[in-house]
Amino acid sequence: MIKILMIEDDVEFAELLSEYLLPHHIKITNFEDPYLGLSAGIEKFDLLILDLGLPGMDGLEVCQEVAQKYNIPIIISSARSDINDKIEGLRLGADDYLPKPYDPKEMHARILSLLRRYNKNNQTETIPIHHFELKGDTIYYHSEPLSLTPAEFEVLLLLINHHGITLSREQIINSVPTMSIDSHGKSLDVIISKIRTKLKDPKKIQAVRGVGYKLV
Fold first, then answer.
1. Are 28 and 108 within one domain?
2. Angle formed by the axes of helices 150-161 and 104-121, to 10°?
3. Residues 150-206 pLDDT 10s
4. Structural domain boundaries enclosing 169
């Protein structure tokens, strides 16, 4: 489950967005008060959605404080459409700026895109694990680069980081930002099958009946 911290004083708007995202394995915890949001344990969340017109503290101040203290992606979601606010928000550390009103589908797409880029940029080069290496945003197997889709990359990297451990389908789906509720079940099997084909080693990823998969 992707955990989103939202600081938004429009409770109805926050609830509507939360209801849309929850079936996509994205849970929003919203605070109307920016001071409560800042003390909510930001490090526990995967991403911050931040309004600018907040009571008692301007959203740009919140953005600056979070960017200086925490390593978390920030999306500003605001009805303030002034280009200067957008420029200042990005300058202070926001990663994206989505003016209201917007379709929740667009926010969903931006969350997944930002988390995918953020996770790749924060990966460090790994030591070889059973002939796997990570260099930047490319996984190598037996020193050969693998051409992977974003979902294949994230699933394989997850299995590599949990080498020898069986991961349930739910664990895999909830840990991979590019997979939504529509991507579970048979679609996960398809992704695994494609990874096996690209590895040219079908026995490298083992299916554990009734549970999930593990890298062996």
1. yes
2. 50
3. 889 889 988 888 888 888 888 888 777 776 544 455 688 899 999 999 999 888 999
4. 124-215
